[in-house]
């Protein structure tokens, strides 16, 4: 009986490996931490490479209403378009869809519940999370994005 209990405990611990997130695949753009730190500001590095989150309502991108594209601040890949931006009232730039193929998703369990995390498909930079509470008259999705992870390029 004691051996059965020990086996059960071992199997339980092996099954619960403690990873807060699933492992991500390698992305096409690969750089060392030193290279990223040299290219990005401290805030950009924290969000894009360490999966940080900026304070709500702190992004200048919240006020941008003009047409254009939003690109990954780390590698310049177009990830969102202004026509899909909306004011979610949450304090972060929000979009109802991403540019197809330019954003990848993973499972994030860091807060004790499951969320869908978004990454740039080229460099793997952390952009934010996607939720199912967006506008019902479109996709129903809310891509809640750290403004620091993006650069805005106005249309010409």
Principal-axes geometry comes out as globular
Helix content: 10-25%
- Give the mean pLDDT: 88
- Beta fraction of the residues? 25-35%
- For the terminal residues, how far apart are their CA atoms? 74 Å
| H/E topology pattern | HHHEEEEEEEEE
Class derived from helix and strand content? alpha+beta
List keywords for this structure.
3 helices, alpha+beta, 9 strands, three-stranded antiparallel β-sheet, 156 residues
Structure report:
By secondary structure, this protein is α+β, with helices and mostly antiparallel strands. It contains three helices and nine strands.
Topology:
Blueprint lengths: L1 H14 L17 H7 L2 H7 L19 E5 L5 E4 L3 E2 L7 E2 L7 E6 L6 E6 L5 E6 L10 E4 L4 E5 L2
Antiparallel strand pairs: 1-2, 1-9, 3-4, 4-8, 5-6, 6-7, 7-8
Quick overview:
The chain has three helices and nine strands. It is α+β, with helices and mostly antiparallel strands and 156 residues long.
